[in-house]
Structures are given as C-alpha cells and as structure tokens.
C-alpha cells in the first residue's frame, strides 16, 4: 500500500510519463536501430492520442509538438553518440531557442514520424531541423529549427571527431534569417535594461 502511495505522489509531482518515454526512446534507438553518422537523419515514430489533443479533441496541441521534439532530439543524441562525447568533455546541452512552423494539423489517432537532421553548427551550438510527417500521406505537417547550446565544449572541435563532419556545410538561408531575428531580439532586450 505504501508503494502505491509513493507512486501516486510521484505521478502527481513529476511528469513520470515523460521520463519513461525518454528512457524508452533512447534505449529502443540504441537496441534496435544502431549508430548513425552525425550528419544522418534520424527518425522516431509517434501517434497522436487523446493525451496529445487540444481542447476541441481533434488534433495535436502546440505544446505536444515541442514535447515530441525533445524525444526526437534525445534519440538523435543517442544514435550519433554526440551527447556521450559532450559529457566526456564535461559539457552539457541545453535548448537555446526553437521555432516551429505549423503547416497542417496532425489529427487525433494519426501516426506520424519526426525526422531530425543536423543542418549547421558554430563553436557554441548545433542547429537541428526537425520535421513532423504524417505516415498516411507523407505530408510535412510542421517544421522546427532548434538551437542546441553545447556547454563547456568547442562544437567545431567536437564535430571534427566525426569524419563526415570534418567540413561544416553552408548555413541554410532560413537558419541565417532566424539567427538574425534572434540577434535583433537580443539587442532589443539589452536596450530595455
């Protein structure tokens, strides 16, 4: 009985399902998919359930998109071994910024996949593009850009340990515009102080 009370308290004060899903996503990727190059696209699958929908019970709510992107990033880090290399150097990874463009909703009970790809990096961060694609029609429902700040590591040096990332690609035009917008916002906030 006391174990049941402890579990109930854990479910009330922590998002236990989030942690279970994180562990499952990483372990399933490592056990069943194997290693990927850091420049490869990684893929996870999901289903829009009744826990994911908005107040109208018809499609995935905006908060769930961001949550699902977390799982896809953890999966990417695990399959490419990138996070392990960051940890070996005493560093960490933290979400610095994200931008999601919603193109069409994901209806309830529709399966989808999220594809994650490293598109660029600088000395402090990696930049990922992630796409939500419904399986029934192959339509890209949403596209996200993510800035993952890597702490206590020089990202350029770190990525040189991957032969496929020896040469950094050109910065995509949409990423440049997004980073410019972030800088304008930062300058504006600095002036407000």
From TrEMBL:
Keywords: Membrane, Transmembrane, Transmembrane helix. InterPro entries: HotDog_dom_sf (IPR029069), THEM6_lcsJ_thioesterase (IPR051490). Pfam families: 4HBT_2. The chain crosses the membrane at residues 6-27. It comes from the Eukaryota. The keyword Transmembrane applies. Belongs to the THEM6 family. This is Protein THEM6. It comes from Drosophila mojavensis (Fruit fly). The lineage of its organism: Eukaryota, Metazoa, Ecdysozoa, Arthropoda, Hexapoda.
């Amino acid at each position: 009985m006391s174990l049941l009370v402890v579990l109930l308290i854990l479910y009330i004060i922590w998002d236990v399902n989030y942690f279970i899903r994180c562990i499952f996503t990483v372990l399933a990727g490592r056990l069943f998919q194997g290693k990927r190059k850091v420049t490869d696209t990684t893929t996870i699958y999901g289903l829009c359930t009744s826990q994911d929908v908005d107040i109208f019970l018809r499609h995935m709510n905006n908060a769930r998109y961001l949550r699902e992107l977390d799982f896809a990033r953890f999966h990417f880090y695990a399959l490419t071994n990138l996070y392990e290399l960051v940890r070996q150097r005493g560093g960490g990874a933290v979400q610095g910024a994200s931008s999601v463009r919603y193109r069409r909703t994901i209806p309830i009970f529709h399966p989808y996949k999220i594809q994650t790809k490293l598109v660029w990096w600088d000395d402090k961060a990696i930049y990922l593009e992630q796409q939500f694609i419904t399986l029934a029609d192959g339509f890209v429902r949403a596209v996200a850009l993510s800035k993952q700040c890597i702490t206590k590591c020089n990202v350029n040096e770190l990525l040189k340990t991957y032969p496929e990332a020896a040469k950094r690609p050109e910065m995509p035009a949409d990423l440049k515009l997004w980073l410019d917008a972030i800088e304008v916002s930062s300058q504006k906030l600095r002036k407000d102080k």
